[in-house]
Amino acid sequence: MAPTSEMAKGSTRYVALLRGINVGRAKPVAMTELKEEVEALGFGEVRTLLRSGNVVFTGKREDPDQLARAIEAAIEQRFAMKVGVVVRTGDELAAAVAANPIAEAAGEGSNLHVMFLAGPLTDAERDRIEPKQFEPDVVRIADREVYVWYRNGMSGSKTAELLDRRIRTLVTDRNWNTIGKLLVLARDV
Question: Quick check: 43 and 11 in contact, CB under 8 A?
Answer without folding.
Answer: no
